[in-house]
Write a structure and sequence with these properties.
With 88 residues, the protein is mostly helical. 75% of the residues lie in helices and 0% in strands. It contains 3 helices and no strands. The relative contact order is 0.08.
Length: 88
Amino acid sequence: MFLGQTMNVQSYLHHLEKVSASENYSSRDLIFFIVLAVFFIISTIGLVKLFKALHYILKENFRYHPYVVWFFTLLFFLIQLYYARGFI
């Protein structure tokens, strides 16, 4: 889901509505929410660190080896292509 894959969102929302109406959260639901929160926290920290590293590399005015700069350029280009594949 985080990488743009599709899933049955309506079924998941229906399950959440039933759980919230009954206010009877099972341990499975709580573990899922904890894992989901940890996943988002770790991915946010990782993205911030990735952008800081890219900013540092580009700020140094391409003093690094050109292959390092090309690697990050191609990496972000491939990520854009991956996200755009659903719209093409």
